[in-house]
Amino acid sequence: MEFQDIVRKRRMIRNYADRPVDPTVVDRMLANAVRAPSAGFSQGWAFLVLDRPEDLDRFWACTAPQDEDDWLRGMRTAPVLIVPLSHKAAYLERYAQPDKGWTDRDEARWPVPYWDIDTGMASLLILQTAVDEGLGACFFGVPPDRIPAFRAEFGVPDGYTPIGAITVGHRTDDLGAVGSPTKRARRPVDDVVHRGDW
Ligand SMILES: Cc1cc2nc3c(=O)[nH]c(=O)nc-3n(C[C@H](O)[C@H](O)[C@H](O)COP(=O)(O)O)c2cc1C
After folding, report:
1. Which atom of ligand 1 is nearest to the CA of 180?
2. Per-residue pLDDT tens digits for 52-87
3. Nearest CA to ligand 1 atom 28
């Protein structure tokens, strides 16, 4: 698919067909994810892949709200879920190396959390690969109060933080719960771009 089509066609899909996803496609998503840029080439990311119904049930049981709504009903139809996790310590360690020299490992040196940014860039590559494969995907948040339960359920070490989760599956005509774009307009380029001065 043309790159411009991938960018244009990518939308968050919140409902999926009852059809498995070819595991080699998931492998391609992950192979593309690790092509993302990362500060100092720290690559402080990890990806938990869930593609067995019992594992997906475990995910939803420990992260989802109690009351099932249209959003959750749709999202639960996804046959694959990828949880991108950021690893802050990998950055603090990497930047303490001689070529960077931040041996105090002071987090105040970081203008923004690059570990989350880089994992987000990897996540976008997963979303874009899904589009290229003719699939749908949705990045969504994991509520902070569910993260300890999620870590415990899947044996995730404390230093790894899920920056969200990504459902993946085949699209249907029903895109699922409506997202914010039905209620909000895309901001025009001229509203957000400042040239020369603000
Ligand atoms: C960091 C981030 C968090 C998001 N969290 C959620 C979420 O919790 N639930 C959800 O349904 N969509 C979530 N979205 C999807 C956004 O609602 C969606 O990207 C936005 O409305 C624009 O729509 P589009 O991606 O289909 O163009 C999230 C997107 C991002 C980038």
Report:
1. 21
2. 999 999 999 999 877 889 999 999 999 999 999 999
3. 140
- Per-residue pLDDT at 99: 97
Largest CA-CA distance found in the chain, in angstroms, rounded = 54
Mutate to test the pocket of ligand 1, among 10, 16, 86, 139 (most ligand atoms within 8 A of CB): 139
Report CA-CA distances (Å) from 32 to 19, 35, 130. Answer: 23, 5, 11
User: Which class for 104: exposed (0-12), middle (13-18), buried (19 or more C-beta within 10 A)?
Assistant: exposed
Q: pLDDT class for 153, splitting at 50, 70, 90? A: very high
- Distance of alpha carbon 75 from alpha carbon 52, whole angstroms: 15
- Residue whose CA lies nearest to ligand 1 atom number 5: 140
Residue nearest to ligand 1 atom 3, measured at CA:
140
Neighbours of 6 (CB within 10 A): 15
81 closest CA partner among 122, 136, 120, 144: 136
Please state the atom number of ligand 1 nearest to the C-alpha of residue 11.
26
* The model's pTM: 0.97
